[in-house]
Amino acid sequence: MFMQDITRFAAAPVQADTSTQIASAHTSFGLVAGTQVETAGGWRMIETLHIGESVYTLDGGLARIVAMNRREVLPGEPVIRIAGGYFDACSDLFLMPGQDLLLDTMGLTEAPYTCLSAEVLAACRGISRSATPRRVEVVTPIFAEEEAVWAQSGVLLRCPGVKPDEASAYPRMHDAAAAVFLETRQRRFS
Question: Which terminal residue of the chain has fewer beta carbons within 10 Å of its beta carbon, N or C?
């Protein structure tokens, strides 16, 4: 994060027992199979990535994946659908309700970005609650430290770092403040 090459300290994959602990701490996160993320080699679907590969982050640098949480969800599992064209998504994007997004505050707050869960966005135009029609893989890439990665060409998704109890570098809005922020943002910039 912020142009540090922390990956030089994480050259080897995280050990299996540590990876399991990290993954279990982030079960509400997740990118549904088919989500495209920007890698050093171009845009790739999240399910094709492996430990050791690098993806582009908010600061423009590459961050190496040090662990992966892969799990399947059953048909009917709740997901949040961001329709293509909304929140800078080039095409439809499906996320687990607890997956965090970073939104440009467009000058509405002092911070340049704010962190919101996909669930909070469900009240916005172009966003809907949905259910998985079939079994689907959900993948959470885990980095040496928390990162915001580019997905579906313009959406920033927060992905966890190795230390699950580490405080986030991105300010988070409470649900009531988030609702006001989203309404103001939508009115002002639509």
Answer: C
State residue 114's pLDDT score.
Answer: 92
Taking the CB of residue 111, how many other CB atoms lie within 10 A of it? 11
Burial 41-75 (b: 16+ CB within 10 A, else e): eeebebbebeeebbbbbbeeeebbbbbbbeeebee
If you write DSSP's letter for every residue of 52-69 in order, what string do you get?
A: T-EEEBTTS-EEEEEEEE
Instruction: Give the per-residue pLDDT at 140.
Output: 95
CA 147 to the chain's CA centroid:
9
CB within 8 Å of 83: residues ≥ 6 apart: 89, 92, 126, 127, 128
Q: Helix (H, G, I), strand (E, B), or coil: what is residue 187?
A: helix
φ, ψ for residue 17, nearest 5 deg: -65, -40
5-44 pLDDT tens trace = 444 444 444 444 444 444 444 456 789 999 999 999 999 9
Give the separation between CA 137 and CA 125, rounded to whole angstroms.
Answer: 26
Place of tokens 């095409």: 91
Q: How many CA atoms lie within 13 Å of 166's alpha carbon, on the beta-carbon side?
A: 16
